[in-house]
Design a protein that fits this description.
The chain is α+β, with helices and mostly antiparallel strands and 183 residues long. The protein has helices at residues 3-8, 18-26, 28-37, 41-46, 84-101, 118-126, 169-179, and strands spanning 70-75, 106-110, 138-142, 160-163. α5 links the parallel β1 and β2. The chain is elongated.
Length: 183
């Protein structure tokens, strides 16, 4: 759902944890209202919530603030135009993240890896199946520091790898601001 739809429905996606949506499902009053009006507020809530947010009232010890120590965003310059939201993040938001989190916590780099060889990539480009080539952008998250910093070659040591196809730039920025400790 779009952010506007969520806001018009009374849900603020920037602050809504999915834990809160589960409370809606447990409320007998809301269940009764849903039956009377033939709506599913819990489902609407889940379409707007952020999985990485934790309701601090429900889980005070489970806050995800600063959960990861370092994040590495990798992308292929040739295919970046196919991922407009990630390109917008790199053009418009990366400096904000770096100013709050610092280069010791976050870095965005052009990927040196490709899942297919150049000949296959050229054939797909000529057939119109692929433009620019390369893998989709991804966020590689680490739970510890490494002397000299992390690179995409360290993927096997990552705690989590998130493919960013379909991600909105605001969601990526919000997630990084939440999950990484401040500089």
């Amino acid at each position: 759902m779009s952010e506007n739809w969520c806001m018009e429905s009374g849900f603020d996606p920037a602050n809504l944890s999915c834990d809160t949506c589960r409370l809606i499902d447990e409320s007998t009053t809301i269940q009764r209202l849903q039956k009377e009006q033939n709506i599913d507020i819990g489902e609407e809530c889940r379409q707007c919530c952020q999985f990485y947010k934790v309701n601090p009232v429900l889980h005070p010890a489970d806050s995800l603030r600063g959960k990861y120590k370092y994040a590495l965003l990798t992308y292929n310059e040739g295919s970046l135009s196919a991922f407009g939201e990630i390109k917008d993040f790199l053009d418009r938001d990366i400096n904000d993240v770096l100013s709050f989190k610092g280069e010791s916590r976050f870095k965005a780099v052009v990927s040196k890896k490709s899942s297919m060889n150049n000949e296959m990539m050229m054939q797909l480009m000529m057939m119109g199946i692929m433009s620019g080539g390369g893998e989709q952008p991804k966020l590689i998250l680490f739970d510890k520091h490494k002397k000299g910093g992390w690179t995409e070659d360290d993927e096997e040591e990552a705690v989590e790898i998130i493919k960013l196809r379909g991600w909105k730039r605001e969601d990526l920025k919000d997630m990084l601001m939440t999950l990484l400790p401040s500089a």
